[in-house]
Amino acid sequence: MIGRGWLTAGVVGYGAISALGAILIQRHEVVDLGEAVPPGAYLEINGQQVHFIEAGSGPPALLIHGFGASTFSFRETIPALSPRYAVAALDLPGFGYSDRSTKRRLSSTAQAELVAQFMRQRGMEDSLVVAHSLGGAVALRLAHTYPELVSRLVLVGTMHPNLSFMGRRRAILARPLMPLVPFITGVARLLGLRTMRRAVHDPAFLTPAILAGYDRPARIRGSQAAVRRMFLDAAEDDAIDLGRIQAPTLLLWGKSDGLLPLAIGRRLLEEIPDARLEVVEEAGHLLLEERPAAANAALLHWLEETEGAARGSSRR
After folding, report:
1. What share of the chain is helix, strand, coil (3-state, %, to 5)?
2. Is residue 23 part of a domain?
3. What is the mean pLDDT of residues 74-82?
4. Cβ-Cβ contacts under 8 Å for 30 (sequence gap 6 or more)
5. Would residue 17 count as lying in a domain?
6. Considering the domain boundaries, does residue 53 fall inside one?
């Protein structure tokens, strides 16, 4: 009887937490995608509306944001690159102002395929690709599978593509827990500033305006459903051989990164053939925003040094 009682209590508790999570998300996600006011334009790819912003002229440069982020993450990077490059920053499906459909795969592999289609439709072959966090895992799969699209690669505090989220076995075990994700995320959002502290070196950087910039797209309905789909679809991501990455690669890391520590950058440095690691002092995971002058200086210096290599790659 005791065992049955605990089981009943567990089932009831599970249901209550799931229901509370749904309420928290419902109260937070209050905007339909069609009602949102995006800062850029849309491109339709396989029936999905993909939001992007663009600036500048010159050789193409594509910017790919990280988990829970959007083109907002590159507000300091775009002005640094646009005098020399035709910059396009896109919102991956499930984030920013792009589609929230859960009927399509949202693994890193699927995201890389969509990015490749975006680049081809926009005429961005042989492009500089700058990617942050989860976007780095997408960019590495892009460079691995479609090397003709990537001339140079900049990975900023990036996730290792072979260690992202969970493997197949973990995904199967985690599936029954997916209804709890809204509750966990809802509580995290209530904590707000405390949740973001690990992403920065100096919490004073997290002004109300910056927190609002990250939170605004997350209020679009379907955001958490897309996150759950992404976690489950991550199980389909096979390991890739980073030794096959042809593009010269800059690994740009914040020394105080508390989300994806510098050890990951050092591991990528060993595995990617033509890679260099640059560390930005007094910066966390959001180094492009927290220390834009230092990050942009390191980025532009490396781009100048490797310009000859980029021209050579276009003749491969």
Report:
1. 50, 15, 30
2. no
3. 98
4. 219, 221
5. no
6. yes
